[in-house]
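Module 6 notes. Inverse folding takes a fixed backbone as the condition and produces residue identities as the prediction. Think of it as a translation problem where the source language is geometry and the target language is the twenty amino acids. Below is one complete input and output pair. Work through it position by position during the lab.
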């Protein structure tokens, strides 16, 4: 017997090994194996098994051991991994590693064991009578509590572990090592909920999901009650003995989503995301693989959760770009969810109030079924949206209309959410004398000033420095702060409303575990009047007392040199406006903008998704952009500016010869929009074709004829989302 193994190195090939007779009966596809590789031992996954004699010229090395007899991958998951590898032109090993949390594959990671105390069934009254008065009381408490973890009992009963262990000598209790679950939601209490009564629109949507044989695009306005539909669709699958995955675009949404699903399904829910500790990820993944968890909640990597008998995958806010992985392997979790559903016969629901144009075209092409939820659930009403032109620059950070609206909400004890999608205090710092802007030496971007710790930070590479006393160019000591960041807006807000309680939510304020949940929990309890945040506050939040949403610079993302800029702006504004007026109180949104006539802003104010999609798609079709063409980016980076430029131009010419006579467009080799990052100069080539296989094959051909030198890093991104 021989086995083909994918080694834990990105070599993009499988290696053959022989299998000893004692291991042959235990060997299965998808298992993790220990094998000899070169002068060391390596680990790898069994990808294929053959009983045919090996016909090669060399003597095969033998599998050393099966590390875990239970396969890490089912046949269906292995098929999914292979398809992702082929589509994205990523080494198979990189997809395998992406599908299993790194903590699970760590050699020293093990289940955690702690000492547990339970009452001994063989205990008798004679043993009890020998105890002291204090020991009798301790024993009675342990009986009342039905045992528990030794250290926790000792703390609760205000005694020492040794005192409790003494009861074991008296043959009244047993103290032994027991596996302890590292629960990511430990300390969080969830009150159980029952299914809500659905309105007509929700009932119709649920019926369509349950009966559909195609992926469903659930096009529901903000506040239409999509989450309750998800919950009841999952409950229907659980009743059939099947399982479910719920995907959310950001970690910031996971605690709130987790709470709602834990309230409904209790311990059947597992959480998977990168903010968990290694131990938590290890335990949650094994709970899923062992069948203890039936519902998995998490961001994009949750699509690989090792659930068996999968019945439903929900991709909430399916339009979000964070579903696209920006590192190898560069998959889109939304598309992987659809593919996994097809392989495993599971239903797939893609939910959004502002669907991606790719999904919208898939509806038009008959690949997805469209289900509409066009009205808000309960008493919620669509907020009125006002546009405020700030192009004159006279209004300052807050327009009079927005200040008046905030003041009105404070008087009425209602809440406000403000969006400004930029971290830090000011966008840049410039010398007043010579005009030089302080830039990160490793990246072609200005430093952002952070007032909280009085330093300059680069949001690309993470470098930081203290604010210089003098200009490095002219020696002057007078700097101007340019641009508006969230910290500056927060400071101005506190001056305008000194009695208001204000919370800030951005990546700088949510670095601690559970900090997302703590901030949003405080706001939900009414402990703050105003929540100001970056795009974290734009989606997935449901606060009945929020009646005003303000956007400080609605056209900021329109200025990005990216063909998706208008789509992202429309989605962001529509989503954040939807945070207002979700209960009995009517809502209002105010967009401050320098370009009130921009299509994305104008139509977002009208909540006219279909009008926006129609106009945007007409332009995309004319220009030959997604979703009508697939687009990939070949990126080159090196510390040598001449080397990267020369190879980019050489690659572009080679690709032009490959594309000749084919339905494929090759862009010129150009410096990337972000020309330098982390000390590396960056160039790119944009490829477009109707058939994705043409793009991946062009990349493989290019690598085979012109392997790049070691000083040059070259990557390929299929269906690229990041054009920077």
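Target side of the pair, the amino acids:
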């Amino acid at each position: 017997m021989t086995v083909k193994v994918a080694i834990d190195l990105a070599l993009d090939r499988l290696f053959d090994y022989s299998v000893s007779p004692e291991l042959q009966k235990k060997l299965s596809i998808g298992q993790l194996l220990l094998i000899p590789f070169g002068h060391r031992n390596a680990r790898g996954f069994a990808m294929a098994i053959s009983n045919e004699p090996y016909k090669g010229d060399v003597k095969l090395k033998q599998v050393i051991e099966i590390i875990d007899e239970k396969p890490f991958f089912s046949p269906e998951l292995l098929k999914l991994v292979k398809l992702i590898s082929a589509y994205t032109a990523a080494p198979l090993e990189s997809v395998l590693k992406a599908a299993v949390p790194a903590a699970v594959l760590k050699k020293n990671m093990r289940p955690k064991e702690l000492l547990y105390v339970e009452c001994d069934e063989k205990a008798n009254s004679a043993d009890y009578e020998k105890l002291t008065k204090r020991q009798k009381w301790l024993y009675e408490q342990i009986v009342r509590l039905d045992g528990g973890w030794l250290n926790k009992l000792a703390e609760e009963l205000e005694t020492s572990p040794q005192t409790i262990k003494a009861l074991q000598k008296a043959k009244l209790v047993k103290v032994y090592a027991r596996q302890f679950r590292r629960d990511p939601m430990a300390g969080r209490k969830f009150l159980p909920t029952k299914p809500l009564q659905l309105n007509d629109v929700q009932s119709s949507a649920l019926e369509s999901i349950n009966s559909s044989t195609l992926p469903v695009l659930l096009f529901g306005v903000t506040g239409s009650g999509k989450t309750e539909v998800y919950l009841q669709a999952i409950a229907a699958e659980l009743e059939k003995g099947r399982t479910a995955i719920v995907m959310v675009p950001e970690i910031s949404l996971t605690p709130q989503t987790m709470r709602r699903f834990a309230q409904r399904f209790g311990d059947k829910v597992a959480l998977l995301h990168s903010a968990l500790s290694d131990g938590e990820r290890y335990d949650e993944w094994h709970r899923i693989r062992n069948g203890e968890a039936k519902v998995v909640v998490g961001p994009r990597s949750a699509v690989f959760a090792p659930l068996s008998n999968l019945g439903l995958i929900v991709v909430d806010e399916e339009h979000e770009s964070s579903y696209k992985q920006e590192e190898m392997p560069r998959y889109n979790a939304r598309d992987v969810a659809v593919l996994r559903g097809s392989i495993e016969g599971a239903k797939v629901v893609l939910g959004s109030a502002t669907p991606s144009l790719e999904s919208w075209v898939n509806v038009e092409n008959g690949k997805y079924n469209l289900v509409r939820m066009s009205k808000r659930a309960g008493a919620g009403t669509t907020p009125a949206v006002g546009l405020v032109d700030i192009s004159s620059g006279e209004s300052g950070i807050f327009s009079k209309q927005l200040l008046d609206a905030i003041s009105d909400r404070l008087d009425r004890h209602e809440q406000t959410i403000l969006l400004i999608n930029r971290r830090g205090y000011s966008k840049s710092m410039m010398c007043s004398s010579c005009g030089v802007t302080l830039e990160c030496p490793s990246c072609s971007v200005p430093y952002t000033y952070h007032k909280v710790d009085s330093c300059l930070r680069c949001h690309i590479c993470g470098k930081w420095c203290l604010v210089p006393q003098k200009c490095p160019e002219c020696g002057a000591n007078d700097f101007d702060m340019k641009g508006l960041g969230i910290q500056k807006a927060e400071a101005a807000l506190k001056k305008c409303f000194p009695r208001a309680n204000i919370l800030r939510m951005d990546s700088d304020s949510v670095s601690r575990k559970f900090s997302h949940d703590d901030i949003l929990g405080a706001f939900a309890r009414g402990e703050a009047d105003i929540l100001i945040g970056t795009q974290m506050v734009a989606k997935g939040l449901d606060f009945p007392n929020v009646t005003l949403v303000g956007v400080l610079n609605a056209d900021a993302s329109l200025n990005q040199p990216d063909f998706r800029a208008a789509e992202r702006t429309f989605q962001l504004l529509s989503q954040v406006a939807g945070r207002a007026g979700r209960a009995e109180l009517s809502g209002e949104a105010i967009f401050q903008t320098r370009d009130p006539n921009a299509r994305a802003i104008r139509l977002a104010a009208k909540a006219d998704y279909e009008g926006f999609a129609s106009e945007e798609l007409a332009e995309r079709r004319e220009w030959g952009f997604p979703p009508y063409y697939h687009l990939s980016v070949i990126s080159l980076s090196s510390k040598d500016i001449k080397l990267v430029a020369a190879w980019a131009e050489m690659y572009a010419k080679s690709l032009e010869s490959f594309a000749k006579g084919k339905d494929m467009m090759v862009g010129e080799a150009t410096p990337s929009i972000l020309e330098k990052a982390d000390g590396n100069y960056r160039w790119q080539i944009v490829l477009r074709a109707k058939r994705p296989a043409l793009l991946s094959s062009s990349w493989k051909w290019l690598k085979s004829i012109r392997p790049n030198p070691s000083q040059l890093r070259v990557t390929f991104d299929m269906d690229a989302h990041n054009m920077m």
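Reference fact for the lab report: The radius of gyration is 29 Å.
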